[in-house]
Amino acid sequence: MTPEQLQFDRDNIWHPYTSMTQPTPCLAVASTEGVYLHLSNGEKLIDGMSSWWSSIHGYGHPLLNKAAHQQIDTMSHVMFGGLTHEPAIQLAQKLTAITPAGLDKVFLSDSGSVAVEVAIKMAFQYWIAKGLTAKNRLLTIRNGYHGDTFAAMAVCDPVTGMHDMFSGVLAKHYFAPRPETKFDQHWDPQDIGELAKILAENHQHIAALILEPIVQGAGGMRMYSAEYLVQARKLCTEFNVLLIADEIATGFGRTGKMFACDHAAISPDILCLGKALTGGYMSLAATLTTTEIAHSISDSGAGCFMHGPTFMGNPLACAIANASIDLLLESDWQTQVGNIEQQLKQGLEPARALPNVADVRCLGAIGVIELTSAVDSVKIQQQFTERSVWVRPFGKLVYVMPAYIMQADTLKQLTSAMVEVVASH
After folding, report:
1. Which of 8, 52, 145, 210 supports an S-S bond with 244, CB 3.0-4.6 Å?
2. Of 17, 130, 197, 332, which residue is the catalytic one?
3. Residues of 175-198 as b/e, b for ≥16 C-beta within 10 angstroms?
4. Could you give the strand order of the β-sheet that contains 270-273, starting from the edge strand earlier in sequence?
């Protein structure tokens, strides 16, 4: 990559959550391999982010490469309106087989945010179909994150979230306090009290409760008790409110279970999937729901579900997703993720004693160091690069979500770099 190309990038290309007047320096990646990023200057970095949590099998897996090559030679894309194809059918069959019980209708879209938009629209259209048009608001929990599009932004944390500046133009919804009982703590029944109160007083106006099960992602990387999820499911059933589980970040083994809902043995009414769905190869998402919701929407009003992205059901993405799911199911992923969890706990524990560290927490292939104050993202990323690792902190959080194939010595290098950098910050 030439200096002129990098200058053009700085001057003209808008990267995620960056300024065009004070752009964050970007590293030039020439290629990827396994758990490594090969930079154009010859450096090699351990990728602790697995491409924003999606490349669970690492980069360039031969089976996923083969699936991509075979499919692109046959059909890279065809509209899904009025047409269908085998990769999409196979993917829907796989998803309905491995997701929580009762989720047997599949809507394929092209990004996680769209999957959330679809879920929200499903919930609203369902109650319109039932004649309960007053159920036109949502309930969620604070410190959540559900995406960057407008309906998704409206259920992100309105104060501490990334989208607080848009509060004047977003739809207004109900927010319950975040769960305080941690994943491995004894359950405190009072933790669900405010959520129950909001539902009891406002259920006639609430279409759905949307939450990230067990792990809140970009809103704080917090891990909470499975019992909270059990109680939330009971409350939604009691008060006739749909439950939407946003598993875009947690799905496909990331928390040590195939889906985070499995920790609580519950089934949501609507489930959102994305990120790891294709093993990080292509953008693809899915929203699953029940037969009752799908039929209610379809048998009234417009006579159909009112959504249809141009690239929904993309054959190339579906073929890779099929290969990724097969690869996951055929591997010993539970042992891999369990080993990573133990190594993360051991490797990050020394950070707990540092004066600038508020908490250290790990679950599955997720490791988090929470600091007492926000980091200088440019400075800290440079420190990580100097140690041959790629970690992208945000706010007070320095965290990793490594690929499941990461070996023990490589993970040790990653966690050691995290502790060293945090100690010097």
Report:
1. 210
2. 17
3. bbebbebebeeeeeeebbeebbeb
4. 105-109, 285-289, 270-273, 242-246, 206-211, 137-141, 174-176
**Marked catalytic residue, from 110, 191, 246, 269:** 246
**Tokens describing residue 373:** 């104050």
The closest of 143, 213, 210, 145 to 178, measured between CA atoms, is: 143
Tens-digit pLDDT profile for the chain (425 aa)?
Answer: 899 999 999 999 999 988 899 888 899 999 999 999 999 999 999 999 999 999 999 999 999 999 999 999 999 999 999 999 999 999 999 999 999 999 999 999 999 999 999 999 999 999 999 999 999 999 999 999 999 999 999 999 888 777 788 988 999 999 999 999 999 899 999 999 999 999 999 999 999 999 999 999 998 899 999 999 999 999 999 999 999 999 999 999 999 999 999 999 999 999 999 999 999 999 999 999 999 999 999 998 889 999 999 999 999 999 999 999 999 999 999 999 999 999 999 999 999 999 999 999 999 999 999 999 999 888 999 999 999 999 999 899 999 999 999 999 999 999 999 999 999 98
Q: Which of 275, 396, 399, 404 is catalytic?
A: 275
Q: How far is residue 408's CA from residue 342's CA, in Å, rounded to a whole number?
A: 10
Among residues 59, 126, 145, 281, which one is catalytic? 145
Q: Which residues contact 317 (CB under 8 A, 6 or more apart)?
A: 110, 278, 281, 282, 283, 284
- Our answer to whether residue 105 is catalytic in this structure is no
- Can you state the percent helix, strand and coil of the chain, rounding each to 5? 40, 15, 40
The answer to whether residue 275 is catalytic is: yes
Task: Give yes or no: 36 in active site.
Answer: no
Note the pTM of the prediction, 2 decimals.
0.97
246 is catalytic: yes
